[in-house]
Amino acid sequence: MSEEPDKGVTPEPETLVVEEAVEEKYDEAGYKALVAKLRENEKQAKKDATKLAKMEEAEQKRADAEKSELQKSQEAAAKLAQENKDLVRKIMRRDVAAKTKLPDVFVDRLNGETPEELEADALAILAAMPNKVPPKTDATNPSAANVGETDDERRKRLGL
């Protein structure tokens, strides 16, 4: 809460304290020596800043070289691991397709990470495939004659 002055009491005016300016005696020789020293410090600071910048740049290049070697190694390792995984998966697919007698056309379409999952997918694909039904042959089918014995074979069998 803010304090409010009593209504009957008037606040006292604040008094300002003014400091007297102290006059220094101008010393030209001391001034010139100070300026020369400051200029020398500035030159040295510029040299140091340039040297520091070069050192930081060299350190950055070294760190980048190390980092890129490490990154190259990590990328190569990741690439080899992925190739290995792909080859293992391809072999598993091929083995499952051979086991379930899935046509080679469908091997690349098998999904799954384990042999059991791949086999279940292969069986699902086989179940979805239409069954081959042999054509019906009857008396009106000209190819029906080729199915049985020829006349010569029948005569030999009957001894005629």
Characteristics of this structure?
mainly alpha; 160 residues; single chain
Folded structure, characterized:
- This protein has 160 residues and is mostly helical.
- It has a domain at 35-131.
- Helices cover 59% and strands 0% of the residues.
- The protein contains three helices and no strands.
- The chain has helices at 28-100, 115-128, 151-158.
- Helix 1 (28-100) packs across helix 2 (115-128).
- The radius of gyration is 50 Å and the shape is rod-shaped.
- 4% of the residues are buried.
- The mean pLDDT is 82.
Distance between the termini: 136 Å
**Number of DSSP-assigned strands:** 0
Structural class: mainly alpha
Beta-sheet strand percentage? under 5%
What is the averaged pLDDT score? 82
Largest sheet: none
Low-confidence runs of at least 5 consecutive residues: none
Give me the Rg, rounded. Answer: 50 Å
Helicity level: 55-70%
Order of helices and strands: HHH
Query: Given the structure, what is the number of helices?
Result: 3
- Shape by Cα distribution: rod-shaped
Give a brief rundown of this model.
With 160 residues, this protein is mainly α.
Task: Annotate the secondary structure layout.
Blueprint: H1 28-100, H2 115-128, H3 151-158
